[in-house]
Amino acid sequence: MKKKLLVVGTLAYDSIETPYSKVSKILGGASTYIALAASKFSIDCALVSVIGKDFKKEYIYLLKLNKINCDGVELIKNDKTFFWSGKYHQNMNSRTTIKTELNVLENFVPKIPKNYINSELIMIGNLHPKVQLETLNQSINKKKFVILDTMNIWIENFRDILEKVISESNLISVNDEEARLLTDEYSLFEAAIKILKMGPKYVIIKKGEHGSILFSKNKLFVIPAFPVKKVVDPTGAGDSFAGGIAGYLTNHKINFENIKNAIVYGTIFSSFTVESFGIDSLEKITKNDIFERLKEFKNLTSFKLDLNKYKL
Amino acid sequence: MKKKLLVVGTLAYDSIETPYSKVSKILGGASTYIALAASKFSIDCALVSVIGKDFKKEYIYLLKLNKINCDGVELIKNDKTFFWSGKYHQNMNSRTTIKTELNVLENFVPKIPKNYINSELIMIGNLHPKVQLETLNQSINKKKFVILDTMNIWIENFRDILEKVISESNLISVNDEEARLLTDEYSLFEAAIKILKMGPKYVIIKKGEHGSILFSKNKLFVIPAFPVKKVVDPTGAGDSFAGGIAGYLTNHKINFENIKNAIVYGTIFSSFTVESFGIDSLEKITKNDIFERLKEFKNLTSFKLDLNKYKL
Questions:
Q1: 8 A C-beta contact, residue A95 and residue A87
Q2: Residue A132 and residue A143: Cα distance in Å, rounded?
Q3: In chain A, at which end, N or C, are there fewer CB atoms within 10 A of the end residue's CB?
Q4: CA neighbor of B27 nearest in space, from B233, B265, B207
Q5: Which H/E stretch holds residue B201?
Q6: A255 at B interface, C-beta within 8 A
Q7: Which DSSP symbol is given to B256?
Q8: Chain A, nearest residue to B307 by Cα
Q9: Which 3 state secondary structure label does DSSP give B294?
Q10: pLDDT tier at A160 (50, 70, 90 boundaries)?
């Protein structure tokens, strides 16, 4: 039987502007990217989220076609889907949020479908920490592995409840700014040490186009991003990254070495995501596309320097 | 017979302020770092530079003790040594120059000692492009490999002569900002493509704490920086990096694979350099220190993902 991954996060409409182009009201949301990336693996993936009356049926079909169980996606008929719009600056590494309309998210209470309360792995996307905590409370699998994402507004305004969620998580994936905000440490090393003390056994600090770093108590792994020739839209890169990690870890033994492998997949998935607006590229890629890019990435980043023949 | 590396660049006094500490009038200058890094390899390294009456004799002894030939270091008795002072911002990745006193550099005309006009490799540090060009004109080795560094003021104010120097170089090592300034391209890919068209067969773009990227016409290599726990002083990091590359390539066949290896050494040397003020750490490190860090770096950056057993 396939192992189960439960994904909790937003489904959204996004309007995005970059220095080169813009799009209006396309399919977005953290859980969209997470679930699509995770579902590239041979696992049983379910989505818990909420949508409004304006959410297109075809998007639910798209998720289902990718073998994502959508029983936990609640439709609120008298409200609208969560909407986000943002504008990327020239470096594509930073952005300004133009508008956030919470809509159905405002009163969202996640409900894990019965079949998934025993999921081996739970990936909790960026959401209000009270929703994240409620998800954890509904799970009955005491050995579950929990992967967490969060962002600045929750760190700044709901620290107590967020710290409770962090303490119950096994792996947290945040970007450099969030790690600094969470710990009040500028050095990413010091920040990671503090986060590890908050509960998680593993911390991943994402640095956008500069790659990411995995920390555990005694080990470290540093990896560059896949060098994408033309970044079209960075939206969802971090979620595709986390989704790749969650998907890989759902059907592999969880240890440092496999989290490294998982991060390689996450890195590859996010590189596809940024090459198009929204999920276009992520959804389309085949097993062969992924394999080819993995090979290319391994080739681009490895060196043969033979330490057994070491001489200066 | 050992192969010859000729290093041309500044010897200087530096006053440096970081968010945590400061030092006054310590030994600095691009060629100091370049030559010290390069001299870790079993090569015949010579330095061409200029100093004033205030330059301490012990610093020349220090260079000579590291087997750096100093016959080409000219002493100008009625002037002072080049002086630079700067202040690093909190991220340690950017800095403000507080003062630059050219002094002996103002009228510097490099003179390559006779024994070194046939050097196999020439590393031209960041200097006025007319000095860089004069160095190339004195070399008689038609098969020499030329590594070049430069900076914003030369790019902005002496572009014509700088372009001539670039056209005669084989490898250029610049940081991301310099690459963008030189090419008017924001994307590092586009920038590298333009620089390759200017002459060099290889372009390295340095990204400070985020590592570096090597470009040739058809190949790419991406490498993170060695993750240094506590950066004390970034001064000389780029020069130690270039010096490591120059040193390695002096006694290895020059091809893409060996330039990758050379960059690994450069990365390791610069990681030592930033752990102390000035050359303290770079000068002290032993063969064993380097070997241990190389092993650690390989371990920190490699993943075992077995592509032969690829399955999703």
A1: yes
A2: 18
A3: N
A4: B233
A5: none
A6: no
A7: H
A8: A295
A9: helix
A10: very high
Pair A48, A68: CB distance under 8 Å = no
Burial class (CB in 10 A: 0-12, 13-18, 19+), B181: middle
Contacts of B130 (CB under 8 A, 6+ apart): B158, B161
Specify which residues B22 forms β-bridges with: B17
Distance separating alpha carbons of residues B298 and A19, to the nearest angstrom:
38
Outline where DSSP puts E strands in A102-235: 121-124, 145-148, 171-175, 202-206, 212-215, 220-223
d(CA B13, CA B62): 15
**What is the nearest CA distance from A179 to chain B, expressed in angstroms?**
15
Tokens, residue A294: 């993995």
Q: What are B95's strand-pairing partners?
A: B88
Contact between B67 and B37 (Cβ < 8 Å):
no
Q: Which of A119, A25, A34, A91 is nearest to A234 (CA)?
A: A91
- What's the CA gap between B218 and B229, in Å, rounded? 35
Of A59, A72, A1, A5, which Cα lies nearest the Cα of A34?
A5
Give dist(CA A177, CA B236) in Å, integer.
Answer: 27
The two three-digit tokens of residue A120, written as one number: 């081996």
Joined together, the tokens standing for residue B252 give 């290895």
pTM of structure: 0.94
State ipTM. 0.91
Q: Nearest CA to CA, how far is B41 from chain A (Å)?
A: 5
Instruction: Provide CB contacts within 8 A for A28, sequence distance 6+.
Output: A12, A13, A14, A16, A84, A235, A236, A278
How many contacts does A have with B, using Cβ atoms within 8 A? 102
| Three-class DSSP category at A308 | helix
Domains of chain B: 4-301 (3.40.1190.20)
Helix (H) or strand (E) holding A159: helix A159-167
In this complex, the residue of B40, B224, B295 whose CB is nearest that of residue A307 is B295
Q: Report the residue of B176, B218, B303 to disrupt the A interface, i.e. the one with the largest count of A CBs within 10 Å.
A: B303
A298 neighbourhood in chain B, CB within 8 Å: 303, 305, 307
| Closest Cβ–Cβ partner in A189, A227, A290 for B312 | A290
Q: Which residues pair with B36 in a beta bridge?
A: none
Contact A221 B301 (CB under 8 A): yes
Structure tokens at A301: 């980043």
In tens, the pLDDT along B183-238 reads 999 999 999 999 999 999 999 999 999 999 999 999 999 999 999 999 999 999 99
Query: Is A102 in CB contact (< 8 Å) with chain B?
Result: no
Measured between alpha carbons, how far is A154 from A178 in angstroms, rounded to an integer?
A: 10
